[in-house]
Amino acid sequence: MTGSNLAEALGGRTEPEIAGCEHPIPRITIAAFCNGADMTSAMQSAAADRRLAKTHFSLHQGGAREAAAHFTQNPTPDLLLVETVSAADAVLSELDELAQVCDESTKAIIIGRNNDVQLYRKLIRSGISEYLLAPVTPLQIIEAISHLYTDKASVPLGKLVVFAAARGGAGSSTLAHNFAWSVANTMKIHTALIDVDVAFGTVGLDFNQEPSPGVAEVLASPDRIDQVLLERLLLKSGEYLSLLTSSASLEHDDNFQPAAVETLIDMARAMAPCVVVDLPHVWNIWTRHTLQRADDIVIVATPDLASLRNCKNLMTMARSRRANDSPPRLIINQAGIPKRKEVPLKEFATTVGQEPELVLNFDPPLFGLAANNGQMLAEVQPKSRAAEGMRQLAQTITGKQMKAPAKSSGLPLPFLGLKTG
Length: 421
Hints:
There is one protein chain. By secondary structure, the protein is α/β, with parallel strands linked by helices. It folds into 2 domains: about 5-150, Response regulator (Rossmann fold, 3-Layer(aba) Sandwich), CATH 3.40.50; about 160-400, P-loop containing nucleotide triphosphate hydrolases (Rossmann fold). The chain has helices spanning about 5-10, 35-45, 65-70, 90-100, 115-125, 140-150, 170-185, 205, 215-220, 225-235, 260-270, 285-295, 305-320, 345-350, 365-375, 375-380, 385-400; strands spanning about 30-35, 55-60, 80-85, 105-110, 130-135, 160-165, 190-195, 235, 240-245, 275-280, 295-300, 330-335, 360. The strands form 2 sheets. An 8-stranded mixed beta sheet has the order 8-9-7-10-6-11-12-13, sandwiched between helices. Strand 8 and strand 9 form a beta hairpin. The radius of gyration is 26 Å and the shape is elongated.
């Protein structure tokens, strides 16, 4: 290989994207040493990211020499991130000092400003796990860490989509169920729909399924959660959709431990490429934790003042705690109810800082018929605005397109033109 440009040597790799289906980052200790304010800011943002929630991340000032001094008196972490501003010739000598005080099992990612393929090769040969060219973004840091701890044979976690209501009665559950059905039946993606509203959940009703212990049984004994138990409790609804229903019984409460809900969802994500969670309209530790861990959040609101206030609060929370993720998607539901004073859509979007992904008009005949029949909107009226909206949302979030049926050329078959006699 000729040339000294590191980006060219790596195949022109640019900032990697964190896909919806991602590999989990294990419970590891990470220590980062940064010289500049920009790198410190990027590290702080990465440390606060949901993908590193299981790690223990410590941030320090300085470079390789400061790290070496620190670890003469402190245990070394599982992973070391070090920024260096030194010239290429000095980088290796600095790292030699650091290697003298680090455990052999410690992995290291170096971040520097030397765009030199020869330096990159020397660093890799010396045992450095990765070299990143500054400046780097939080997502590049997270992707590099994930790459180090990814088992090539492991199956990535499925995309987690969480539906939440801005207020009770907004229709979040109905739209979550229709979205999951669209992903499964339109995109042909294996999907798990989890109803965590143990007292008032409606997945069983909407899909015409008998209620089962489902979520309540699993979360009551989180230590028993495994793939065998989950497969036994999941109900099939067609070829691609599986349902984890709630018992809809007032004998159960929702005082779950966040770790139990996380274990349940992660187990489902290991089994299905797409997991949809129908979140109840309550606010506690586990609902907040579930929202923060989602790949995509869909907030369903109605165009009224209560929804506007609550939606703004949810958007603000999500943006502050999910800085490296796209903002929640907004659906305005039940628009145009006769004689109801509504907040104008433009004013709603301006206030919450987010344009709606979808606006669905008030349509009692369609939604009522679907609910009474235990059917989805697309099964009742495939060409309705609501059904089409769910299909579009499924395509947008999954990143897949529907396969269009083969079109006829419009020409008659050859034998139709044959004359007899």
